[in-house]
Amino acid sequence: MDERVSIIIALFNAENYINETILSVINQSYTNWELIIIDDGSTDGSAHIIQQHLIDNRIQYFKKYNTGVSDSRNFGANIATGIFLCFLDADDLFHYNNIKEKLDFLMSNPEYPLVHADVELIDENSNSTGGYFKGKGGNILNSLLLWQETNIPGPSSTMMTKNIFYNIGQWDVAFSTAADQELFFRVAAKHPIGHINKVLTSYRVLPNSMSRNISIMEKDHVSVYKKAYKNGLFKSFWFKQQCFSNLYFTLAGSWWINGKNKKRGIYFLIKALFIYPPVLVKLTKKVISK
C-alpha cells in the first residue's frame, strides 16, 4: 500500500499555530503525502513561517484573495493529486499514525468513502484540556440531523476518497462555520460513515474561534438545515420538526451562554418549543441538572 494522500490546509492569519500544524504532518509515520496550503488572504506572518517548510517538496503553498474557507478548501482539492483527501484546520494537529490508520481503514473497507476518529481537545498552548470528542460510525444521517451528540468531530478528524468529495459536490461556498456539517449530511445521506475508536487528532479550542461567532453560526446552521429539508433528507414531518427544534435549542444556548444575549436566546427557545413541544422535557432535564 503506497497510495498518495493529499492534505489541504486553508488558513487565514494562523501565524501562532501553523508551524506546529505543518510539523504534525511532516512527522507522520506514513510518508506518501502532499500538503497543499491555501492562504486565504492572510495579513500576518503566516507566509514567512510556511516558506521555511517549502524545502520539503511534498509541500505546496498558494496565496490568494480572501474568498472564505470553503472556497479555499475546494481550491486545494482541485490541485490535489492523491486519491484520498484530508482537510486539516490550520490550528489543529495530526497524531503520529493518523494518516496510516485512516488510510488502512479506507483501503480495507471500500464501502466507507469517509472515515473519522476521535479527537482530543487542546488549548492555545497545545496542552490537553482533558476533553475529548468521540464520534460514531455506520448509517448516521438521522443522528447527524438530530444534532444531539457528536457524530463526526470536524474536518480535521476525517479522511475521504476524492471520488466521494467530487460525487457529492465539494464544499458549499455559501457556508463557513457550518460547512462541515452540511458536507457530512450529503455524504451520510448516501453512504455509511467509518469510525476508528481512538484519538488521532487534536482540536484546538480558542476563545476567538469561528464557532464562537454566534451570528455567523446562526445564519450558517439555519441555512444548512433548510438546505437539508430542500434535499429531502428528513424521514418524516415530525422528525424534521424535532431536528429543527434541536437546532433552535442549540442556538438558544449559544446566544444565552456564549453570546451573552438572553433576548436572542429566549427567542430561539420559544421557536424550539413552538415547533416541537416535547423539547420542553429536554429543557426541564437541563434545569434540574444545574
Can you tell me about this structure?
It is globular, with a radius of gyration of 19 Å. Strands 1, 2, 3, 4, 5, 6, 7, 8 and 9 form a 9-stranded mixed β-sheet that branches. It has 2 domains: 5-210, Spore Coat Polysaccharide Biosynthesis Protein SpsA, Chain A (Alpha-Beta Complex), CATH 3.90.550; 234-289. Strand 6 and strand 7 (128-133) form a beta hairpin. It has helices at residues 18-26, 46-51, 69-79, 98-108, 141-146, 162-168, 179-188, 214-230, 237-258, 262-275, 279-289; strands at residues 5-11, 33-40, 59-64, 84-87, 93-94, 114-122, 128-133, 158-161, 194-204. The protein contains 11 helices and 9 strands. The longest helix has 22 residues, at 237-258.
